[in-house]
Design goal:
The complex is a heterodimer of chains A (578) and B (100). Chain A is built from 19 helices and 20 strands. Chain A is α+β, with helices and mostly antiparallel strands and 578 residues long. Chain A has three domains: 138 residues, 3-Layer(aba) Sandwich (Rossmann fold), CATH 3.40.50.2300; 218 residues, Phosphatase 2c, domain 1; 182 residues, Heat Shock Protein 90, CATH 3.30.565. In chain A, the strands form four sheets. A five-stranded parallel β-sheet of chain A has the order 2-1-3-4-5, sandwiched between helices. Chain A has a five-stranded antiparallel β-sheet with strand order 6-15-14-11-12. Chain A starts with a helix and ends with a strand. Chain B has a five-stranded mixed β-sheet, with helices on one face. In chain B, strands 3-5 form a two-stranded parallel ribbon. Chain B has a single domain, classed as Transcription Regulator spoIIAA (2-Layer Sandwich). Helices cover 34% and strands 32% of the residues of chain B. Chain B is an alpha/beta fold. In chain B, helix 1 runs parallel beside helix 2. The chains are: A alpha+beta (578), B alpha/beta (100). At the A-B interface, loops of A face helix 2 of B.
Chain lengths: 578, 100
């Protein structure tokens, strides 16, 4: 709502002319137009009166003693406040091109050559006032827009990006071209300990380009928190933005999920410049090119495009960047470009401060040239994300007291839940987040569900990979094999038409806490239980294996873990105390 | 103005000179929005384009929507190396024909 006070307020006019007669004539005409009029008889006095009364209109003679009209006009224009035009008209009898040009050069908004009729004078005043009103309207709109942008910026900074995970470990760089950036940087922790990061670049910048930011951040966070896999999150975000945004608005984005557990990184580049993986000595180990049109362009992701899986060392760093860095220009029109970026990032990696060193380098290169596009970067370390599980030391004691016979347990289950997935659905549906959300809906939110999430994920993935898909975990024993394993897994999942996995949960309330029995049955051929046990004994003190660590963690977290029916059925029991 | 339009039969060629960015979006839209004849072909000639930004990508997507609606055809013609790099990063060859 804007108040129309200006319309009611009496307008002030200042007439500067060394002829008292002229002042009188002009004053009468202006008063007829509703102005309150002040007069001055030389330029210097005119400037002083201008400062004192801040008029809405100035009429200025050219030839005057002490200070002439041009000089007075220059002074007045330099004093006039940024948000008001204060139109200034020269009144003169010099009908020459030179006078006209000099008047405009001195800051005049118009010139009126004597003699003129009162009608022409009034028409001139009206037209100049119209321009002045338009100017005021634009200034007002600009102020409103600025206020909106500031509010949006505050929302972005306080609500969206302040909730990012591990700001102390992950380097984030963001320098918007407009107040409100079209770039968005998000990081979040998945319940399995993976760290997910997203660097997004909405088309254009400013308010228009950021309407998708809030739903994007919400989806990214909540799906990560519920434990959905990276590709599931990307699929959902794509769908959401496709429906939400107009056709010419989209999101170029890089998605990364880092797993300390698997020592691997999952990367999806949709429309950003190459994503880099640097080694600790600043060497570039991998460049991951864009492999998919930006997010929100197509209704569904292109099926044959999949995540890039790369084995990483704890000291490696993943660097995502938007095109604003490489396209930054200096005065000579040169681009900052990839070569400079790669060299600078190398120094940054070695000095462990990529974002600040890159920002400084880009600033020095541009030498104060106005920034055309948003500049942003994520510098994500690949190590240090190991999960710390809290193993409940009271488990064993209490459990022995609580153990009941199988039939008693079945009879007293507080609730049961079951899901059977078959064939192609197995490749499309991840039941773990569904199970987790069921449990939380019934039993409420609690920290220890994170352990349960890990148990369910490990057991389900084992049933799917080794049972239904019949993949050998031997493959995972070498870094190259790990990537091969993942590719083969993708392949078999895509062509999956048969097989099943049944998940059964039974929950028992205990006096202090509860117990969850988990049964997962798969359609695979199973495995030789004794052989696996033997192997485990042999490897116990040996080198760390890439496979099998999942089951080890599950064993530590669960009260009991049994394989039955030739390894095709796993039964786990998870107990917690409140 | 850095945009030229040639029409022959049911083929429209839009030639964009120098910069392809938001400043020409109205001209770009005007160049094709009256073309409603089914089966029309629209060619975006980028052989004289030196720079393209992400809003240009958006404008091309709007054109593609229009072409799909009238069951027409479209292609991007001869982008230079720098412009092609931008199309490549956006993986536009998956969405339309790009003739090099």
């Amino acid at each position: 709502m804007s108040l129309q006070l200006d319309k009611v307020r009496i307008k002030l006019a200042l007439v500067v002319d060394d002829s008292a007669m002229q002042c009188k004539v002009l004053s009468v005409l202006l008063k007829e137009e509703g102005y309150r009029v002040f007069t001055a008889n030389d330029g210097a006095r005119g400037v002083a009166m201008y400062i004192k009364y801040q008029p809405d209109l100035v009429l200025m003679d050219i030839n005057m003693p002490i200070m002439n009209g041009y000089e007075a006009a220059r002074k007045i224009k330099s004093l006039s406040k940024e948000n008001s035009l204060c139109p200034l008209i020269f009144i003169t009898s010099m009908d020459t091109d030179q006078a006209f040009i000099e008047s405009i050069d001195a800051g005049g908004d118009g010139i009126l050559v004597r003699p003129f009729s009162p009608e022409v004078f009034k028409a001139k005043i009206k037209s100049i006032q119209r321009i002045s009103d338009l100017y005021a309207t634009i200034k007002e709109l600009q102020r409103e827009q600025q206020a909106d942008a500031e509010l949006a910026e505050q929302l972005m900074a306080d609500v969206i990006e302040a909730r990012n995970y591990a700001l102390d470990k992950i380097g984030l760089l963001k320098k918007p071209a407009a107040l409100f950036s079209g770039d968005i940087l998000l990081t979040a922790l998945s319940p399995n300990g993976n760290v997910n990061a997203l660097l997004g670049d909405f088309t254009g910048h400013g308010l228009r380009s950021s309407i998708g930011a809030i739903p994007l951040a919400e989806t990214f966070r909540s799906m990560t928190k519920k434990g959905f896999s990276l590709i599931e999150i990307i699929t959902q975000i794509n769908k959401q933005l496709y429906h939400l945004l107009p056709a010419d608005l989209f999101l170029a984005a890089g998605f990364v999920s880092v797993s300390s557990h698997d020592e691997s990184a999952y990367i999806f580049n949709a429309g950003l410049p190459d994503t880099y993986i640097y080694g600790a000595n600043g060497e570039i180990k991998h460049k991951i090119q864009s492999c998919h049109p930006p997010i929100g362009v197509l209704p569904n992701l292109i099926p044959e495009v999949s995540l890039t899986v790369i084995n990483v060392l704890p000291d490696d760093r993943i660097i995502l960047l938007s095109d604003g860095i490489v396209e930054a220009h200096n005065e000579a029109g040169e681009m900052y470009d990839f070569e400079r970026f790669e060299e600078t990032a190398k120094i940054g990696v070695i000095k462990q401060d990529v974002s600040n060193i890159v920002l400084k380098s880009v600033d020095e290169f541009c030498q104060g040239m106005p920034q055309q596009d948003d500049i942003s970067l994520i510098d994500l370390p690949c190590g240090g994300w190991e999960q710390t599980f809290v193993f409940n030391p009271h488990h064993n004691v209490e459990v022995n007291e609580l153990i009941l016979s199988e039939s008693d347990l079945l009879a007293s289950a507080t609730w049961r839940w079951e899901l059977g997935l078959t064939g192609e659905r197995l490749s499309r549906v991840n039941p773990v987040p569904m199970v987790m959300s069921q449990i939380q809906e019934i039993e409420g939110h609690a920290e220890h569900w994170q352990s349960l999430f890990t148990i369910l994920t490990e057991l389900f993935v084992n049933a799917l990979d080794h049972g239904v898909l019949n993949l050998s975990s031997e493959l995972k024993n070498s870094p190259e094999g790990f990537t091969e394993y993942f590719t083969e897994r993708e392949n078999r999942l895509k062509n999956l038409t048969s097989g099943f996995i049944d998940i059964q949960l039974a929950y028992y309330s205990l006096a202090q806490g509860g117990r969850l029995n988990i049964q997962i049955k798969d359609s695979g051929t199973g495995f030789n239980l004794e052989e696996v046990e033997k192997k485990k004994e042999q490897l116990k003190d040996g080198k760390i294996q890439l496979s099998g660590r999942g089951v080890e963690i599950v064993e530590q977290l669960c009260e009991s873990l049994f394989y039955r029916e030739n390894g095709t059925l796993v039964e786990a029991s998870y107990i917690w105390t409140s | 103005m850095t945009l030229k339009k040639h029409v022959s039969d049911n083929k429209i060629t839009i030639v964009i000179q120098d910069r392809f960015d938001f400043s020409i979006h109205q001209h770009f839209r005007d160049a094709y929005c009256d073309c409603n004849e089914s089966g029309s072909e629209i060619i975006i000639d980028l052989s004289q384009t030196t720079y393209m930004d992400s809003s240009a990508l958006g404008m091309i997507l709007l054109l593609k929507d229009h072409v799909d609606k009238i069951s027409g055809k479209m292609k991007i013609f001869k982008p230079n190396e720098a412009v092609n790099k931008i199309l490549e990063i956006a993986q536009f060859h998956r969405l339309m024909t790009i003739e090099k």
